[in-house]
Specification:
Blueprint lengths: L2 H16 L4 H12 L4 H7 L7 H37 L18 H15 L3 E2 L5 E3 H4 L11 H5 L2 E4 L3 E3 L4 H11 L5 E10 L11 E11 L4 H16 L5 E8 L2 E10 L16 E10 L1 H6 L8 E8 H9 L24
Parallel strand pairs: 1-5
Antiparallel strand pairs: 2-4, 3-4, 5-6, 6-10, 7-8, 8-9, 9-10
Helix pairs in contact: 1-4, 5-11
Length: 346
């Protein structure tokens, strides 16, 4: 190849670039010239047969550099053209209404748990958690429920390993563990939220898996009057300042005396309606003074230390507060069920 032929090749390259109008055609032309069997590649391979290899190589490099310079310039030009074309075809009318972005909402049970935890922490309680797979010792025996006690039947427990290991049927075992850690030497003020499990039929008001938040206070001067005052604060926080509370005698193995805790019906204001079953009152928890046997078994001298305990079913609280009539709402996957809670509360 001589200098005249090299000029002719460069002219052909320049002319061809002038007729290229899109990126695909440009890339195809690069392959045609610089690919394994490309024209410029073939010229490079001819160096070994040239008489004056140095001069031949110089001319081939001139042709190749000429191609690369025009190629880069053409590539930049076509990319800018393609971008401009794309922007024009995809431009947005900013005067149109914005597209609504769907956001999730917090799980209503978690929302209720956080609300209750914040309230009790403001009253000086600590939030304590424990294992969901529990020993019979903590779930029953230390809570004044020895083997053969009839109250065990009403809990209908999921046993995992003989009669020793089970899915906890309430969060009270956390209270027992906390008292044992206290070693009978220091006061206790805790709430214990978490999942519990019982052999129960799944229907509108029952579930084999449900959540509780139980509380325990142990001190040298704790009385039933302190429990009443605490319950009154909780009820008014959940259902409004006009909420009236009352205690009714009841029975729980781990408290004595024991009470059912009621609130005045927030729907009918005591006149009677389907929510309160025409009584004017709604039961929302069980409570009582900690049984001396429980204190003694957990290391506290009942002649010195006194306490009270209470327990709320979180699903029941949420159902009453938010007007939910089926407990299964909390556990299904229908997003329409949670749409009503997709809001901030003051």
């Amino acid at each position: 190849m001589n200098e005249e032929k090299a000029k002719k090749i460069m002219e052909e390259i320049s002319q061809r670039f002038e007729h290229i109008t899109d990126l695909k055609e440009l890339i195809d032309y690069k392959v045609e010239q610089l690919g394994k069997k490309g024209k410029i590649t073939t010229l490079q391979a001819g160096i070994k047969d040239a008489v004056d290899k140095k001069e031949y190589g110089k001319l081939v490099n001139t042709v190749k550099n000429h191609f690369n310079e025009i190629y880069e310039a053409k590539m930049k030009l076509l990319e800018e053209f393609e971008l401009k074309k794309k922007l024009e075809s995809e431009k947005i009318d900013i005067t149109l209404p914005a597209t609504k972005v769907r956001t999730g909402s917090p799980n209503i049970l978690e929302k209720t748990v956080e609300d209750m935890e914040n309230l009790f922490m403001s009253l000086g309680y600590d939030v304590v958690e424990g294992p969901e797979i529990e020993e019979d010792l903590y779930n029953f025996e230390l809570l004044n429920l020895p083997k053969g006690h009839p109250a065990r039947d009403s809990q209908d427990t999921f046993y995992l390993e003989g009669d020793k290991i089970l899915l906890r049927s309430h969060t009270s075992p956390v209270q027992a563990r906390t008292m044992l850690e206290g070693k009978g030497e220091k006061p206790i003020r805790v709430v214990c939220p978490g999942k519990t499990y019982r052999r129960d039929d799944d229907d509108a008001t029952h579930s084999h898996n449900f959540m509780q938040i139980e509380g325990l206070l142990v001190d040298k001067r704790a009385t039933l009057a302190d429990l009443k005052g605490t319950f009154d604060v909780v009820a008014k926080h959940l259902f409004g300042d006009d909420c009236i509370t009352r205690f009714r005698p009841s029975y729980y193995p781990f408290t004595e005396p024991s009470v059912e805790t009621d609130i005045s019906c927030f729907k009918c204001k005591g006149e009677g309606c389907p929510i309160c079953k025409n009584t004017g009152w709604i039961t929302i928890s069980g409570a009582g003074v900690v049984h001396p046997n429980v204190l003694k078994m957990c290391g506290y001298d009942p002649s010195i230390w006194h306490g009270f305990a209470f327990g709320f079913g979180l699903e029941r609280i949420a159902m009453l507060k938010y007007g939910i009539n089926d407990i299964r709402t909390f556990y299904n996957t229908d997003l329409r069920e949670s749409k009503v809670f997709d809001r901030r509360e003051d």
